Each structure stands twice: as structure tokens, then as C-alpha cells.
């Protein structure tokens, strides 16, 4: 055992300030992920309605996506109740997964735009025309990423609960012959 070294007041203040800044940055990270996830859900729920004509505007693929999203949200809520997550903890987990999916999608889109802007890709870009195919493909990939985030964002049992608890080994007692009784017998 090492002896405890006395720390100065300045070192204690420095450590406290470090911990406070760490907690603040961690909270801001989670808040940014949750807000990005909420933005993702709002954006992609509006993408299903292409021309703002109500339910007549939804394609068959849009109906399938909405049905899958509804089933995945039910799965999310079912697992949250099953594993004892509270409402806010389950919601935070789902929104964080949606935020990570949107950030991933935007990163991939940025890389694709960088490739398209290069001179070698200009001829392929001109061949696409107005870009309607690229826009529809981007929307399709975005909606699939939302469904994947709903699937992967479902609550799971925390890691420390999944580990099996060690079973105490019972010591086997051999029968012995002794002149004293182990238990007192009453009639």
C-alpha cells in the first residue's frame, strides 16, 4: 500500500475543475446527439409526403417504411418495459441512435459530394441529368438508416446485469458419529 501524499488546495481545485468540465462536455455531447436524433425523426417523417397531398401522396414503399417504423417503435417500447428502462432513459437511447445515424449519413453524403466535385466524376454527374435519381436514392438510404437506428437503438440489458452471478458452492458435510447431538430434540 502506497502512502497517501498530501495534495495542495490548488491541485484539488484543478481536479475539481477538470471533472466539472468533463461532465459539462459529456452532457453537451448527449444533448447534441438527442437533438440531432429528434431532427432526424422530424425530417424523415416529412420525407414520406413528397408533394404535400396527404395520404394519397404516400407510395407503397412509404407505407411499408411506416409499418416497419411502427413495429420497430413497438419493439423499442416493449424492450424498454421488459428491461426496466424508464421513459426518459429509453427515449434518450433511441434519440442518440437516431443522432448517430444522421451524423453518419451526413458524413457519407459529404464524402460523395467531394467525389462528385472532382473532375473525374463530372462526366458521370452530367450523365445523371437533373439529379432526380440521386435525390431519390439519398432519400431511400436515409429512410433505411432511420429504420436501422430504430432497430439498433432498442434498449438492451445493461452489461453488468447480463453477467451470471457466481453461485456459492455448498460445502458437503460428511456424516459423523459423535456422542453429542447437533440438534436438540424436543417431544
TrEMBL record:
Keywords (A to Z) from UniProt: Membrane, Transmembrane, Transmembrane helix
Source superkingdom: Bacteria
Region (Disordered): 162-187
Segments traversing the membrane: 31-49, 55-74, 95-117, 137-154
Name of this protein: Permease
Lineage: Bacteria, Pseudomonadati, Pseudomonadota, Gammaproteobacteria, Oceanospirillales
Amino acid at each position: 500500500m502506497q502512502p497517501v501524499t498530501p495534495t495542495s488546495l490548488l491541485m484539488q481545485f484543478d481536479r475539481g475543475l477538470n471533472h466539472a468540465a468533463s461532465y459539462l462536455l459529456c452532457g453537451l455531447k448527449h444533448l447534441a446527439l438527442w437533438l440531432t436524433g429528434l431532427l432526424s425523426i422530424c425530417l424523415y417523417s416529412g420525407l414520406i409526403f413528397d408533394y404535400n397531398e396527404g395520404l394519397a401522396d404516400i407510395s407503397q414503399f412509404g407505407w411499408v417504411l411506416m409499418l416497419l417504423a411502427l413495429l420497430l417503435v413497438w419493439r423499442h417500447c416493449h424492450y424498454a418495459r421488459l428491461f426496466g428502462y424508464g421513459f426518459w432513459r429509453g427515449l434518450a437511447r433511441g434519440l442518440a441512435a437516431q443522432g448517430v445515424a444522421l451524423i453518419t449519413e451526413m458524413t457519407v453524403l459529404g464524402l460523395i459530394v467531394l467525389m462528385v466535385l472532382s473532375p473525374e466524376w463530372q462526366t458521370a454527374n452530367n450523365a445523371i441529368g437533373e439529379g432526380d435519381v440521386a435525390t431519390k436514392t439519398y432519400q431511400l438510404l436515409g429512410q433505411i438508416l432511420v429504420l436501422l437506428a430504430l432497430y439498433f437503438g432498442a434498449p438492451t440489458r445493461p452489461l453488468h446485469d447480463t453477467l451470471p452471478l457466481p453461485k456459492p458452492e455448498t460445502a458437503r458435510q460428511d456424516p459423523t458419529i459423535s456422542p453429542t447431538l447437533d440438534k436438540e430434540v424436543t417431544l
